[in-house]
Amino acid sequence: MSRLAQLPARVDLLVIGGGITGAGIFREAARAGVSVLLVEARDYASGTSSWSSKLVHGGLRYLKTGEWRLTAESVRERERLLREAPDLVQSLDFVMPLYRGIKPGKTTMRLGLWLYDRFSSGGAHSRFLPAAEASAAQPGLRAENLLGAMRYQDARTDDCRLVWRLIEQGQRDGGLALNYVVAEQLLQAQGRVCGATLRDAETGESREIAAGLVINAAGVWADALPGQPAGAPRLRPLRGSHLVFPQARLPLPQAVGWLHPRDQRPVFAYPWQGATLLGTTDLDHREELWNPRMQRAEADYLLEALDWLLPGAGLGLGDALSSYAGVRPVVDDGADKPSAASRESAQWASPGYIGVTGGKLTTFRVTARQALRAAAQQLPALRLAADAAALFDRALSESPAELPDLAQIGERVGEQVFHLDDLLLRRSRAGLVLPEGAEALIEPALAACRAQLAWDDQRCAAEAGRYREYWRRQHDPRGLG
Ligand SMILES: Cc1cc2nc3c(=O)[nH]c(=O)nc-3n(C[C@H](O)[C@H](O)[C@H](O)COP(=O)(O)OP(=O)(O)OC[C@H]3O[C@@H](n4cnc5c(N)ncnc54)[C@H](O)[C@@H]3O)c2cc1C
Asked: Domain extents for the chain?
């Protein structure tokens, strides 16, 4: 029987979108005493949630815009994820060099980080390093006018693994989740949303499903979901891009954050899964939303920042392993500059329907619980677990990724993989951090899919072709001109 034919005629809750927001809602709903189905149009996390900076952070920069609540909440969630998911979220030391004549100065940074520390239960993590210590902590640092650096702590994750773990946990608790299934049209009866038409993107099959409540968690696509009631906020899609370098070409003992000399926006570089990430940009994205690409001007902007901070590094685009771009689902609050637009989440509701978008990876749990508290008003059977309830069963934990390898890929083939890119770009991040899009792992990965998913020769050839073409178009830094 097909995947759609196996679904029940009705579920209590239908969640649309399998990024971090939908996955967080799905995880909490699955243990809230209601039946829940999540549908994701492509692969889990393939929208924005796989292309973030992968920082689970308090958002130091939000202090500057007075968003204290967002910072305090983000710090609390960071602490909690560090405690509850140590295999998925690890603490990350940052140094932030400070230069004479460049704002923020030492006093402002000290005050900001003092507050940051206060929000965290773990006490003081930050401290000022005088110039000599700063240069020792981060070799190669621009020496001219160096005052010193602030050292502080945040955290990093693998955004895709975090999404997958929430899906896996929700399924374990009885929820149903389907990737490559599109919600094509919401259904309404007597002024109430009562279900949706679903289409299996792999087979083309369609069917309707009834739902007591529908939650639209479709990220940057949330305002365009067909058939939804009026009331969605206007979104302002903001693109952010990253370059990934081999650690040997950009070895960093810890993360380094600084202000771009051109426009004083914060940028950063840090070690991640055996490579080094350099990011990020923040621009209005006016192109189509599905496959955002880094533009050459963004790469030049990031390389200029790096060259300013580490003048001896001598890195060019030719050194990069890959590039990637994502589009932030930010609510249009009329801010003049993209970076000034608030990162708070937005929620709207009508009978039978709740929409939720915006927000951060870091605060997914808060966003999910807010959406489900609103859902409970329309679905009285929904009983949210206590706020203190652990997010994950310990049995699901895995070893933190150092550098993706074949063993890791082989283990993850069974995680609802439909295409080679699901495996090489999301279940594992090999395609981003290994040379040539992990070309050396393509054949062994196909062999694992042949054994576990019964792919035949024709399917393997088609998948290899699809993956190589996709990687070249989306992630090959040489393609940036
Ligand atoms: C460059 C960049 C850097 C960032 N860095 C950080 C960071 O370091 N830390 C942090 O906390 N946050 C960060 N963020 C923010 C964070 O990544 C996003 O807020 C978050 O991933 C958004 O998740 P989402 O689930 O709302 O959207 P998405 O991940 O886009 O999920 C929505 C999903 O809905 C699916 N969908 C759409 N339409 C349909 C339909 N009709 N039927 C079924 N499915 C559908 C899409 O395929 C998509 O997968 C960053 C964002 C960007 C772009």
From this structure: 10-49+160-234+341-394, 235-331, 403-480
> How many CB atoms neighbour CB 443 within 10 A?
10
Matching fold, domains 10-49+160-234+341-394 and 235-331? no
Ligand 1 centroid, distance to 22 Cα (angstroms)? 9
Q: Is the backbone peptide bond immediately before 357 cis, with ω within 30 degrees of 0? A: no
Q: Give me ligand 1 centre to Cα 343, in Å.
A: 12
Q: What per-residue confidence (pLDDT) applies to 124?
A: 67
pLDDT at position 123: 67
Nearest residue by C-alpha to atom 9 in ligand 1: 55
CB-based burial of residue 189 (10 Å sphere; 0-12 exposed, 13-18 middle, 19+ buried)? exposed
Query: What residues contact residue 447 under an 8 Å CB cut-off, 6+ apart?
Result: none
Which pLDDT belongs to residue 68?
79
pLDDT value, residue 481 = 67
Nearest to 165 by CA among 57, 283, 278, 30: 30
The Cα-based distances of 348 to 14, 96, 217, 230, 355 in angstroms read 16, 38, 11, 10, 5
Confirm if 236 and 332 have CB atoms less than 8 A apart: yes
pLDDT digits (tens, 9 = 90+) for 3-45: 999 999 999 999 999 999 999 999 999 999 999 999 999 999 9
Query: Which of 15, 48, 244, 301 has most ligand 1 atoms within 8 Å of its beta carbon, as the pocket-test mutant?
Result: 48
Chain centroid to CA 378:
29
DSSP H helices, 101-229, are: 106-119, 131-137, 159-172
Q: Which CATH number fits domain 10-49+160-234+341-394: 3.30.420.10, 3.30.1360.40, 3.50.50.60, 3.90.1150.10?
A: 3.50.50.60
> What pLDDT does 373 receive?
98
Question: Amino acid identity of 259?
Answer: L
Which residues of the chain fall short of a pLDDT of 70? 63, 123-124, 401, 481
CATH of 235-331, one of 3.40.50.150, 3.40.1280.10, 3.40.50.720, 3.30.9.10: 3.30.9.10
| Residues flanking ligand 1, CB < 6 Å | 16-22, 39-42, 46-49, 51-55, 57, 182-183, 217-221, 225, 240, 280, 326-329, 357, 359-362
Mutate which of 158, 221, 244 for ligand 1? The one with the most ligand atoms within 8 Å of its CB, which is 221
Helix/strand/coil for 57: coil
Neighbours of 137 (CB within 10 A): 17
454 exposed, middle or buried (CB, 10 Å; 0-12, 13-18, 19+)?
Answer: exposed
- Token readout for 174 is 């009885």
pTM score, two decimals? 0.97
Cα-to-centroid distance, 49 and ligand 1 (Å): 4
